[in-house]
Amino acid sequence: MTKYKLNIIVLCLILSSCSNFLTWHLDKGIHKNSPLQANSTVESATTKKNYNISPEEIWSTSTNKGLHGNTGYLRIYKKNNLIYSVDSYGLVSAVSSASGDIVWQIATNYDVSSGISVLSDKICFGTTDAKLICFDTETLSLNSHYPLISSMKNLTTFSKSSPDLEIELLSELASPILSINNLFLLKLDNDDLYLIDPSSQDVIWKSQSQNIPLRTKGASMPLVQNNTVYIARDNGSLSAYDQTNGTLKWLTIISSRSGRNDLESQRDAEMNILVSNNRLFYGHFQGDITSLDLNSGDIVWSSPLSFVNNISIHGSSILGSTTSNVLVSLDKASGFTIWKNELNKDITEPFIIDRIVMIFSTDGTLFGYDIESGERVYEKEYGYNIHPKTEFIVEKNNIYFQTSDGETIHLRVNL
């Protein structure tokens, strides 16, 4: 009898071990139906004090009236020592990155829906009535107005300036345009992709996509690299085209549409495409984050995490904020979860300063986490009104961004 009891105990131990072995991958990000597991969250109740982190606001300038209506986040653009921005009412500004002073401003009186693009000699943006508007940079700087008051909140007296280029589009621009050999690459909010000659307005090539019911505008920008255009679409696909003639190189569905209704089946393409070491990384809203071979489009790994904000790569790790407000660190080679940290606030994309990954909540609280362990090492409320899709321009330990109400901010993080 003792012998049988011993065998039963051994069998139970083996089954328990096998069970653990068979389910080890659920928290490693490769089981598509696996939710985030609370027991792997490394949230600490208190902030560690053994890190000397001291962000300071270098300057803050009330640049414009910010975002209004259904306008999505309007990206800013930094070129040399100037930061360019446009608000929902078409006020174009150039701000000194060194001092925060407004160098020039000009009101265009257009209703703007797509953030600013700064090309070699043009500043362009998209409008709510489906137009691409461009100004010569020199024209703007010469015909601009210099503000006579420090706060732009009540500014209403600017004259209209005629654009140097105006192109009628089939639908609104979904993202800022890109330039390829003096040609314009446009992604529209119906997911169509166009390469056009701005001088003649001829279409060099186009790639059309199917309209998806009940979708929102996917603001993901195309990526141009090695004579190839990569684009993520709202149908859950990612594809590559020859930049010269638009020939399709590959197309991969990385986030299949599924759900009880059209709303649950949304797969909006919001974040920008990221490339590292011949691998492409992308994640859809309510879809998966996926690593693909850059040349073939073959899937290397996939993890069931939903993203709308941009991700970052640091060494062998991928850092990103999910739509469920979880800051995650994934192994770049496998997609396995290294650590994750759930916040009880809406959060932006992360940005990395040295060994610290930092993230803002939309109510203006800045959090810092040790990039290796995921332990919280910094927290401070700044009171900024921050759009959830705010994109941060990071140069070493200097961070530039614009708030929802039109404040352009320069922070410096001292470690």
Give me a quick take on this structure.
By secondary structure, the protein is mainly beta. It is built from two helices and 32 strands. It has one domain: YVTN repeat-like/Quinoprotein amine dehydrogenase (Methylamine Dehydrogenase, Chain H).
Structure overview:
- The longest helix has 21 residues.
- The protein has a single domain, classed as 7 Propeller (Methylamine Dehydrogenase, Chain H), CATH 2.130.10.10.
- The chain has 415 residues and is mainly β.
- A 4-stranded antiparallel sheet has the order 1-32-31-30, with no helix packed on it.
- It contains 2 helices and 32 strands.
How do the strands and helices of this protein lay out in sequence?
Blueprint: H1 2-22, E1 54-62, E2 77-79, E3 82-86, E4 91-96, E5 102-107, E6 112-118, E7 122-127, E8 131-136, H2 137-142, E9 165-168, E10 178-180, E11 183-187, E12 193-196, E13 203-207, E14 223-225, E15 228-232, E16 237-242, E17 248-253, E18 274-276, E19 279-283, E20 289-293, E21 299-303, E22 312-314, E23 317-321, E24 326-331, E25 337-342, E26 351-353, E27 356-360, E28 365-370, E29 376-381, E30 393-395, E31 398-402, E32 407-414
Antiparallel strand pairs: 1-32, 2-3, 3-4, 4-5, 6-7, 7-8, 8-9, 10-11, 11-12, 12-13, 14-15, 15-16, 16-17, 18-19, 19-20, 20-21, 22-23, 23-24, 24-25, 26-27, 27-28, 28-29, 30-31, 31-32
